[in-house]
């Protein structure tokens, strides 16, 4: 394989087509770069929305848990357990979603 690559380079150089081949290579790289930028942008949006949803959900669970504790419907430790479980599970879910291709 390496010999074929070297022979190919020699053929291109002997024909004086280095600039043409480099331009084609650059065009292919730009196409791939554009695609990867779009993919990274979308992943960033999903990750950002997920992080926001995580903290909004955590704050809502603490608020609602606080109202239930104030009304003596549940214990304080149970409200904290539920809030922590929601926080950890939502962060794990978002990390796994953003890793998917």
Briefly say what this structure is.
This protein has 101 residues and is an all-alpha fold. It contains 3 helices and no strands. The chain starts with a helix and ends with a helix.
Task: Produce the secondary structure layout.
Elements: H1 2-15, H2 18-70, H3 76-99
Can you tell me about this structure?
With 101 residues, this protein is mostly helical. The protein has one domain (2-99). Helices cover 90% and strands 0% of the residues. It contains three helices and no strands. Helix 2 (18-70) runs antiparallel to helix 3. The longest helix is centred in the middle third of the chain and has 53 residues, at 18-70. It is rod-shaped and about 85 Å long. Residues 1-6 have low confidence and may be disordered.
Q: Ranges with pLDDT <50 over ≥5 residues?
A: 1-6
What's the helix-strand series? HHH
What overall geometry do the principal axes of the alpha carbons give?
rod-shaped
- Portion of residues within helices: over 70%
Radius of gyration, in angstroms, nearest whole number:
27 Å
Features:
101 residues; mainly alpha; rod-shaped
